[in-house]
Amino acid sequence: MNEIVLQTFDLAKQYGPVRAVAGIDLPVYRGEVYGFLGPNGAGKTTTIGMALGLIHPTTGRVELFGQPVSPAHVTPLRRVGALVGAPSYVPYFSARRNLQLVARLYPDVGAARIDEVLEMVGLAQAANRPVRGYSMGMKQRLGLAAALLHKPELIILDEPTNGLDPAGMREVRDLLRSLAGGGTTIFLSSHLLHEVEQTCDRVAVLKQGQIVAQGRVSELLGQRQVVRVRVPLPTVAREALLQSGVPADQIRTNGSYVEVTGLPGEQIVERLAAHAIYPGEVIAQGTDLEETFLELTREAV
C-alpha cells in the first residue's frame, strides 16, 4: 500500500453552537493530487488550518507523515509547503528579493533553488521587478514559488490558480502533475471544478462539515452516470428494476424512457431482459465533476 502522508481521524471543530467540521476521516497518499471540494462555509479552510497546525481540533486528530500535528507539535510541518489565502510580500521588493527573505527560514535553500522555482512558476523574466507592479495572477505564482522553495514532500494549496488566465491555469496544472509524478503529494482546495477534474487523482466533497463523497474522480463520475432506456411501458420497466434491486432514488421515468443513475447500461439491459423487457434504445449520458458536485451539495448551495 502507498504511504499515507496526510490523514485525519474523526476530525472535528466546534465554534460555540456551530460545528464547522463534523468528524471527517481522509487519507492522502504519497504522489497523488488530492482535491478537497465544498461550497463556501463547508469547512474546507478550517480543515486546512487544523492540518497546518494553526487551529486546535475540538476532537480527533491530524497526522502528517505518521506524526501528530497541532499548534504545539509542528515538527512534521518542516516537510510541508503551503499556499493558503492571498500571499503577502514586501511590495517594493522584487520577487527574487522576497524569495531570498523566505529562504532564510531554510538553511539549505540557495540562489540556484530560487532561480529554479522562479522558472517553474513562469516568473523568471519578471524576477527583478517590484512585486507591487504584479498582477493578481503573478502574485499567486510567487506564492506558489515560496511554497515550493524548500522542496516539500507535501504541498497544501488553497485556490492556487486564483487570478490566472487559462494559459496560466494550464501551466500550474501541468506543474502540479509533474510534481506528483516526482513523488510530491498535492492537497488542493479549489472552486474550479473543471481544473480539479483534469488535475486530481482523488477528491473528497465536503458539505456542512462532513464528507459526502470520496474516491477517484473516475469512480465518482461513474456513480453519477445516467443511462436512458427507451421501453414500451416505462412504469412496468421501473417496477422490474426495483424488483431486481435497483434503489428507487436511482430510477425515474421520463416520457417513453426510464432513466437510471449509477448503473452501467449492460446491467440495466440484463435486468430488464430477465423480466422479458427489451429496450429499443440505450443512451449513456456522461456527467462531469461540476454536475456531480452540485448534486452532492445541493442543499448547501
Short description:
The chain is an alpha/beta fold and 301 residues long. It has 10 helices and 14 strands.
3D structure, described in words:
The chain has 301 residues and is α/β, with parallel strands linked by helices. It folds into two domains: 4-216, 3-Layer(aba) Sandwich (Rossmann fold); 226-285, 2-Layer Sandwich (Alpha-Beta Plaits). It has helices at 44-51, 95-103, 111-120, 136-148, 166-181, 193-199, 217-223, 234-243, 265-273, 289-296; strands spanning 4-15, 18-29, 33-37, 59-64, 67-69, 80-83, 154-158, 185-189, 202-207, 210-216, 226-230, 251-254, 257-261, 281-285. The strands form three sheets. It has a six-stranded mixed beta sheet with strand order 6-7-8-3-9-10, sandwiched between helices. Helix 5 (166-181) links the parallel strand 7 (154-158) and strand 8 (185-189).
Task: Outline the fold blueprint.
Layout (H helix, E strand, L loop, with lengths): L3 E12 L2 E12 L3 E5 L6 H8 L7 E6 L2 E3 L10 E4 L11 H9 L7 H10 L15 H13 L5 E5 L7 H16 L3 E5 L3 H7 L2 E6 L2 E7 H7 L2 E5 L3 H10 L7 E4 L2 E5 L3 H9 L7 E5 L3 H8 L5
Parallel strand pairs: 3-8, 3-9, 6-7, 7-8
Antiparallel strand pairs: 1-2, 1-4, 4-5, 9-10, 11-13, 11-14, 12-13
Helix pairs in contact: 2-3, 3-4
Structural category is: alpha/beta
**CATH third-tier fold name of the largest domain:** Rossmann fold
For this structure, what is the CATH class of the largest domain? Alpha Beta
Q: Catalogue the unreliable spans.
A: none
How far apart are the termini? Answer: 36 Å
Question: Looking at this structure, what is the CATH superfamily of the largest domain?
Answer: P-loop containing nucleotide triphosphate hydrolases
Question: How many separate structural domains?
Answer: 2
Task: For the largest sheet, list the strands in their spatial order.
Answer: 6-7-8-3-9-10
- The average pLDDT value, as a whole number, equals 86
